[in-house]
């Protein structure tokens, strides 16, 4: 479509998605007749705004803020905020589009949204981060609310940033509306288990996928790209279930530790010191560090979990993983595998868990955080984790059911798209052309 001419990532996501709907559209032509595809690929709204802030040297800086409110057919817009220099309308629209169907898959009443800014948090002082978050929220506050649009974290936005943004929202609105943001600190409306939920959920999905095929995480070798929120808790849960994690990375390079990565060290470097993964070998000289993040996929493993960013795993990397006998690949990040890489996995019968299904645990627990905020109570970690496990099992089952109904030969990529799409499309038809 000409109007989205330059939006490469958005085109990639939509093309992959539409390709997998073919069997559904053939069986149920009503979705074409009602013009659902034309409506569903156009966001309800894309907001862009100026984010001016002053750095520690007194210099004025300006970034661009964005929020896409993609689809509200089944609930208020919901999706994270990303602070990264690569953020633009293509990235935010691809993420918002994917989020719509992921949220539908969770079974929770949440629509799709996403946002962020082309701000680079790396090397910024804590005060600079705070001033940026405050300026960003001063503008965003006009467009969000607990029943309208509920942002959360994503790349570059963790508990610290959510805290600063919540503080500013409260000041601008003059009200303590806990349900406006998720991923909040436990002391002011956050949910136990939210921090761990995307990574833990990823592993719960992998567990189901492996169980059905007679494999297990116990005794398996795992590599996980990234060393952020998703990666750290995927590593933690996989280790708890008996896997050995031998490698992880950041945007500069990757570490390999044949004895198994020490996750406490990674947490200290990344969550406490905001440092680089290369620092790992100072504490663990037996491990090695290599520059460049793509090389991580050359390490032999049973399970590969891309948990860093979009298009980080290409066709060559996929072929190498297959050559090294990988059994399962599950996407903790959003769209980490290129379309060519996905084809390699599917052609070679590698168990493949697509992002929409695999990483939906984060937004699912965000929705549980909203529910707790509405009821003004807090569930225990165990209660939240039990609900997360149940949700991930249901998502897995939705994929199995769609794969069976449409004879997809175990293609969960297509199955997740079909299952997520139907609920949103049916709600849109019921609500008319609006
Ligand atoms: P974080 O910012 O916590 O961590 C991101 C990690 O990926 C960091 O290690 C980062 O390295 C690395 N990374 C970022 N950009 C690149 C790049 N261009 N090349 C290589 N590595 C890179 O983010 P999250 O863990 O929250 O998010 C990771 C992925 O998971 C994203 O795709 C996100 O959309 C998705 N996701 C996150 C959810 C959540 O709940 N947080 C929910 C669902 C999906 P460095 O430190 O060098 O920047």
Succession of helices and strands: HHHEEEHEHEHHEHEEHHEEHEHEHHHH
- Proportion of strand residues: 15-25%
Poorly predicted spans: none
Binned, the helix content reads 40-55%
**Compounds present?**
NADPH dihydro-nicotinamide-adenine-dinucleotide phosphate
Number of discrete helical segments: 16
Q: Average pLDDT value? A: 97
Shape: globular
Strand count, sense and barrel status of the largest sheet are: 7 strands, mixed
| Cα gyration radius (Å) | 21 Å
Spatial gap, N to C terminus = 21 Å
- What structural category arises from helix and sheet content? alpha/beta
What's the arrangement of strands in the largest beta sheet?
9-8-7-6-10-11-12
What is the subunit organization of this protein? Answer: single chain
Count every beta strand, where a strand is a DSSP E run of 2 or more residues.
12
Summarize the structure in words.
The protein is α/β, with parallel strands linked by helices. The chain is 47% helix and 15% strand. The protein contains 16 helices and twelve strands. The chain has helices at 8-27, 30-33, 36-40, 89-105, 126-140, 159-173, 194-212, 229-240, 263-272, 280-283, 315-323, 339-347, 355-358, 361-375, 381-405, 412-431, and strands spanning 45-54, 60-71, 77-83, 111-117, 149-152, 221-224, 244-249, 253-256, 288-291, 303-305, 328-330, 351-353. The strands form two sheets. It has a seven-stranded mixed beta sheet with strand order 9-8-7-6-10-11-12, with helices on both faces. Strands 1-2-4-3-5 form a five-stranded mixed beta sheet. The longest helix has 25 residues, at 381-405. The chain is globular, with a radius of gyration of 21 Å. The mean pLDDT is 97. The structure holds NADPH dihydro-nicotinamide-adenine-dinucleotide phosphate (NDP). NADPH dihydro-nicotinamide-adenine-dinucleotide phosphate is lined by residues 153-156, 198, 226-231, 250-252, 293, 307-309, 312, 332-334, 359, 362.
């Amino acid at each position: 479509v000409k109007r989205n001419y330059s939006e490469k990532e958005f085109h990639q996501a939509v093309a992959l998605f539409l390709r997998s709907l073919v069997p559904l559209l053939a069986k149920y032509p009503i979705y074409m007749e009602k013009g659902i595809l034309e409506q569903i690929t156009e966001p309800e709204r894309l907001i862009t705004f100026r984010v001016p802030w002053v750095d520690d040297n007194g210099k004025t800086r300006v970034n661009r803020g964005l929020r896409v409110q993609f689809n509200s057919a089944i609930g208020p817009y919901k999706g994270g905020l990303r602070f990264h220099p690569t953020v633009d309308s293509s990235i935010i629209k691809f993420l918002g589009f994917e989020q719509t169907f992921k949220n539908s898959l969770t079974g929770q009443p949440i629509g799709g949204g996403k946002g962020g800014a082309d701000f680079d948090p790396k090397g910024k002082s804590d005060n600079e981060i705070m001033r940026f978050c405050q300026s960003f929220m001063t503008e965003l506050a006009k467009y969000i609310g607990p029943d309208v649009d509920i942002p959360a974290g994503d790349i570059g936005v963790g508990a610290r940033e959510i805290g600063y943004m919540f503080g500013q929202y409260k000041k601008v609105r003059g009200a303590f509306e806990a349900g406006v943001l998720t991923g909040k600190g436990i002391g002011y409306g956050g949910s136990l288990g939210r921090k761990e939920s995307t990574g833990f959920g990823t592993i719960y999905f992998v567990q189901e996928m492996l169980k059905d095929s007679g494999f297990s995480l116990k005794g398996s070798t795992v590599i996980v790209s990234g060393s952020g929120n998703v990666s750290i808790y995927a590593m933690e849960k996989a280790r708890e279930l008996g896997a050995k994690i031998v490698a992880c990375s950041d945007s500069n390079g990757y570490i390999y530790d044949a004895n198994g990565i020490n996750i406490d060290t990674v947490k200290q470097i990344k969550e406490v010191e905001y440092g680089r993964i290369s620092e790992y070998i100072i504490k663990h000289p037996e491990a090695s560090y290599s520059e460049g993040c793509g090389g991580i996929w050359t390490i032999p493993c049973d399970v590969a979990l891309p948990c860093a960013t979009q298009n980080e795993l290409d066709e060559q990397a996929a072929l190498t993983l297959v050559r090294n006998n990988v059994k399962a690949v599950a996407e903790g990040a959003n769209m980490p595998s290129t379309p060519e890489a996905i084809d390699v996995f599917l052609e070679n019968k590698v168990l493949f868990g697509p992002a929409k299904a695999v990483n939906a645990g984060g937004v699912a627990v965000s929705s549980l955080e909203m529910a707790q905020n509405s009821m003004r109570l807090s569930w225990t970690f165990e209660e939240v984790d039990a609900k997360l496990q149940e949700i991930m099992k249901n998502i897995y089952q939705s994929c199995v059911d769609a794969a069976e109904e449409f004879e997809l030969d175990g293609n969960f990529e297509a199955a997740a798209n079909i299952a997520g799409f139907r609920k949103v499309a049916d709600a849109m038809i019921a609500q008319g052309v609006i």
